[in-house]
Amino acid sequence: MFFLLHKAFPLGLALISTHAAWAFGNEEIPAGESQATQQIAQMVEEDVRAEAKNGPARRDAHPKAHGCVQAEFRVLPDLPEAMRVGLFAQVRSYPAWIRYSNASGKAQNDSVGDARGMAVKLMGVEGSESGTQDFLMINHPVFFVRNAADYVEFQKSLSAGSPVKFFFPGMNPLNFRLHEFGVARAIKGKDVANLLDSRYWSTTPYRFGDTAMKFSARPCGPASAFAATATPDFLRENLREHLASKEACFDFQVQLQKLPGEMPIEDPTVEWSQKDSPFINVGRIIIPAQTFLSAKQLNFCENLSFTPWHSIPEHQPLGGINRVRKTVYDTVSRVRHALNGEQRREPANF
Prior knowledge:
CATH topology: Catalase HpII,  Chain A, domain 1
Order of helices and strands: HHEEEEHHHEEEHEEHH
Low-confidence stretches: 1-23
CATH architecture: Beta Barrel
Largest sheet: 9 strands, antiparallel
Mean pLDDT: 90
CATH superfamily: Catalase core domain
Number of helices: 8
Distance between the termini: 38 Å
Radius of gyration: 19 Å
Number of domains: 1
CATH class: Mainly Beta
């Protein structure tokens, strides 16, 4: 039932900078994380190469795209002083690309329970080595794997054809991962008819200057009129029907870490309390009416690489799962581009 839910995050890794570790004393790198990450990267690369024997090499996670659309990311004016950090220090707009997708590593009917992804790429970003800033989100506030070591165990369960063993590895109830199981069930249990009506979360933390944040994209405006669910690809069809004549928008929100003991950096299965630290609007995403299914645009979008490590230092990814994502996501991008004979580069524009 839960195969490839882990693909809600194309994972990767690398040790985070000394500066970030000092800036956030509650960020801890456990012994063996590097080895675990390399093990994950190897398993994922093997999966990508095996799947490519039957066609083009695709992402190990989120391979089924519903649409890749052009957008504008606007930093809001008159932000409180504490929120004028990094990208949000000045009022300005960025051209952006947004890729919507299903998380499962296998293309499947949209009626099957799955995480839905919203990956946002801002272009023309000064201070980022890539020239871009990527915000990766899914439609649930938390993830269901705590760290690299647990992720290895989940991958092993998948390879054995019995992913449920990750949650229930034996007869001893002390070893059950009931909390993670509940998160996985919640992710799979969401009913989504139109991607423009869903809220999305980072699930993992990031720097916000000298503190830490999580972020979210929340729909603004009325619900879409397009919500049919009769066909296998209804998410793409509803997205296409809506944007054929109407724009859409999302409020981009930031939640600051206020209580480190209750808002952990290293455990993305824990939701940060909105009562203690509510989300604050810092930007708006505008998706204008458009068509997005031309062969040229589809090919352009398939060759994009999204990773939280396309980032300026003020918004550097934090925590173990993000450290894992750095190496593994880079591995997936490198391997699939090489197998497809495509150059790997960040876009200047379409």
